[in-house]
Q: What sequence folds into this?
């Protein structure tokens, strides 16, 4: 499939199909895994710790396990009760740190309130931190050094590259400053790199004149966690809109009890855009692929020998 497209005209809005890109990447990775297996006698191994029964977390981890199966990875899912103690969780993390067969692992967020997420992040061996959250990986990312990139920002940069969307010299406005998406994508796109060299404005709940700032954006990355936050009158004609939000809301069409929507008012915004990601089917599948690519890099010792 070719992702090269013509320049924007008012009638040439393109939907960025993250699902299609992810499927293409899985097919390519499947061949890489076969070659790796022939040369080493093993396959990459990704593990995940799931605490509690959060439906969204269960669905997300399930997607990761299915993706592992599709590309030929080995996967391990460790399920822990909602009431698990901090100490017992840390013991499970240390087991995975010490297991030479595990190339990378994640602890699915969010965690129960009695668990300290910072301590959990710090406890993960940065060489197996395929979510890219450990301060070693985060710091190396900020300095432009080899590292495991946070999975969602990694996926976003892949989409921008696949669709030949220019970032150099563009004004990117990021809405949301989380350590998982907003802050790292602002760093990645501002770095001197192929999918960087942008002028980035990182906005959040305390930002004044956000409406005016968004109207000046060539590229908007919405990751604030508020359904339909970015409205039509906040987007200039021809802008690129990347919607990271995944929100479950009541389905007013009565086709079901609820539906997934993003942080962008998609139906009203899409016709003003040169490119836009849908929810679902946009950034979500690429987050999983970012994780898979990090795991493969861990197995092949591409980042940390």
A:
């Amino acid at each position: 499939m070719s992702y090269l497209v013509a320049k924007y005209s008012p009638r040439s809005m393109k939907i960025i199909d993250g699902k299609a890109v992810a499927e293409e990447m899985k097919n390519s990775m499947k061949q890489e895994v076969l070659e790796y297996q022939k040369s080493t006698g093993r396959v990459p191994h990704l593990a995940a710790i799931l605490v509690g029964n959060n439906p969204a977390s269960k669905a997300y981890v399930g997607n990761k396990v299915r993706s592992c199966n599709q590309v030929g990875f080995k996967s391990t899912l460790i399920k822990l009760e909602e009431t698990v103690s901090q100490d017992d969780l840390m013991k499970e993390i240390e087991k995975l740190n010490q297991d030479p067969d595990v190339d990378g692992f994640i602890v699915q967020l969010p965690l129960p309130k009695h668990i300290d997420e910072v301590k959990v992040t710090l406890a993960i061996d940065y060489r197996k931190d395929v979510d890219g959250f450990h301060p070693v990986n985060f710091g190396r990312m900020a300095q432009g050094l080899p590292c495991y990139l946070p999975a969602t920002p990694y996926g976003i940069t892949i989409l921008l590259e696949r669709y030949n969307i220019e970032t150099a010299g563009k004004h990117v406005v990021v809405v949301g400053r989380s350590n998982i998406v907003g802050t790292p994508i602002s760093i990645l796109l501002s770095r001197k790199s192929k999918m960087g060299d942008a002028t980035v404005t990182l906005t959040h709940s305390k930002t004044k004149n956000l409406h005016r700032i968004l109207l000046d954006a060539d590229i908007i990355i919405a990751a604030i966690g508020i359904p339909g936050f970015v409205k039509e009158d906040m987007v200039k004609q021809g802008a690129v809109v990347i919607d990271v939000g995944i929100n479950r809301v009541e389905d007013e069409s009565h086709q079901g009890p609820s539906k997934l929507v993003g942080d962008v008012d998609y139906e009203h915004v899409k016709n003003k855009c040169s490119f836009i990601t849908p929810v679902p089917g946009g950034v979500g599948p690429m987050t999983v692929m970012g994780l898979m690519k990090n795991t493969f890099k861990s197995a092949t010792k591409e980042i940390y020998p």
DSSP finds ten helices and eleven strands in the chain. Residues 18-40 form the longest helix (23 residues). The radius of gyration is 19 Å.
